[in-house]
């Protein structure tokens, strides 16, 4: 989700799909795809939640790129995801080179120079990890320490050790040694080499993911993995499952500006700053304000006499914090999740939740579609003046409210009516994405709906 970048990042619209600059520029995903497009690169193979296929296709189409899709019915971290991609590629070319890229990082500089230089080592069976030359001591990143150079492969080293999120003192000493690098999460290897390493170190996960690929169902732009099989895979990153155990792993130091953009402080540090150190987007006025990040949405935001603040405005939520406390956004999101707040799940126009006007909105504006992944939960409210009908289109829902028995599962075709002013809690109680529709009814429609239900009864 990119929790620390809320309210820009939501469960259903995570930061990968959001514009980095806040001014409608390319999303993180689009920037990643375009960075490695054309020339020696094939079209991308994208692994994501099964529910995100439409969004992926739209984002790629907007930048003139086509790609293949692998849909995950449940999330199992990066290890099974990357393995699924390797198995898919190996169907047509077992020795295909895979460049594995997180889609939510910001990179300035020509990473592809190093990628191209390392292609021969990967083709000969090495697993190449790209280590970023560190700019400062950072306690929130993982590190890779380089060992001896690998003969015949200039710039490639054995991996001496992995260090996960060191203390500030240790990070400073590692950087001073000059042979330890930020772990970027970017890797290059042959598909069959990765599959072989899973066979050695994680045979159960290999069997589960292979069964998920073999049992996959076709989708519009690719496949959706079999849910039961994929759910049996180990839920761990590739680093822990394979890289930290493999004798084939190596590291290529890479001198580019890189950030995983994990919090709003990183967005500020990477943005174009004014003379006072402010980074802003939208209609913003700053008076005697410095070193701040301000993102306006649909209104003028005026900031007077402040420093080190972070203000992010969206249609349905406003974040106000400072650089010192930016990491605590994650804590706020945890509370909002526990409360079932829809503002965590997806971007919703603010006036939809507060609609009280007696005149009914057009039918198209009164219908909303929602998708929840495994165990996700939100609160649905009927704002009035009429009731709201909730209909399950796909999956299995657990609905708890004044007139709903939470022990009764609601499957495709089931529907409930929520009285004006009341709310229900909706949770995905199945193994596949839950898709449901809410329709805000006018009083007349509610009466007709009740009459129809009595007739059916």
TrEMBL record:
Gene3D superfamilies: Spore Coat Polysaccharide Biosynthesis Protein SpsA, Chain A. One of its GO terms (biological process) is GDP-mannose biosynthetic process. InterPro entries: ManC/GMP-like_b-helix (IPR054566), Mannose-6P_isomerase_type2 (IPR051161), NTP_transferase_dom (IPR005835), Nucleotide-diphossugar_trans (IPR029044), RmlC_Cupin_sf (IPR011051). Residues 282-334 form the MannoseP isomerase/GMP-like beta-helix domain. Residues 2-270 form the Nucleotidyl transferase domain. Pfam families: ManC_GMP_beta-helix, NTP_transferase. GO terms for molecular function: mannose-1-phosphate guanylyltransferase (GTP) activity. This is Mannose-1-phosphate guanylyltransferase.
